[in-house]
Design brief:
With 197 residues, the chain is of the alpha+beta class. The protein has 2 domains: 51 residues, no CATH class; 140 residues, L,D-transpeptidase catalytic domain-like. It has an 8-stranded mixed beta sheet with strand order 5-4-3-10-6-7-8-9, with helices on one face. It has a two-stranded antiparallel ribbon with strand order 1-2. It is elongated and about 75 Å long.
Length: 197
């Protein structure tokens, strides 16, 4: 038995992502019902949740990390373009070169991100390859140990919520845990990092 029903037709406007529904009269068998707007909405939600890439995965391959200490910002770059930026906390004495262990300064120069530590005492950590041969020579000439173990990391496990409001590290580069998750996914071991004044 055929009956007349009103069916909705969905049209997606790619530029804005708007879905337009238009009604038209169809002659359909009783057992074949057209998709309603509510069903269409659930389909869109399902595909958005399970098949749409998240923000971190939508960023092109990161090939360089830049930290600008005076701006308290970390930038991810791909093919020379900034694709993501994050506010950072540094050591309480962030200006100037790191000269020795315990000076609480963040080093300046070109390094490599050489190791990921998911079991850090902070929320995830990626190690910066400081000290370089030049850093060691400079510290040795002054009679100092150059220090090391400089990381990009999240917040202390069980730490305070407002830690990003001030410089608190021993020379590391700290970001929020949410931002650390993104950086962890986007940055591979071996990625160069440049730390600028």
């Amino acid at each position: 038995m055929n009956s007349h029903r009103v069916a909705e037709r969905a049209t997606l406007e790619p530029r804005t992502g708007t879905i337009w529904l238009s009604a038209r009269k169809l002659s359909l068998p009783e057992h074949r019902r057209p998709v309603t707007s509510r069903a269409l909405l659930w389909i869109v939600v399902f595909f958005r949740i399970f098949f749409w890439p998240n923000a971190a995965l939508a960023v092109p391959g990161v090939d360089q990390v830049i930290v600008v200490k005076s701006e308290r910002m970390l930038y991810l770059k791909a093919s020379g373009e900034i694709v993501q930026r994050y506010p950072v906390a540094l050591g309480p004495v962030p200006w100037g070169y790191k000269e020795r262990e315990g000076d609480e300064r963040t080093p300046e120069g070109r390094y490599t991100l050489d190791f990921k530590n998911p079991q850090s005492r902070f929320y995830k950590a990626i190690r910066v390859s400081y000290p370089s041969a030049e850093d060691r020579a400079r510290a040795q000439a002054m009679g100092f140990n150059p220090g090391g173990n400089i990381m990009i990391h999240g917040q202390p496990i069980g730490g305070q919520a407002d830690a990003q409001l001030f410089n608190w590290t021993d020379g590391c580069i700290a970001v929020s845990n949410e931002h650390m998750d993104e950086i962890w996914e986007l940055v591979n071991v071996g990625t160069p990092i440049e730390i600028l004044p």
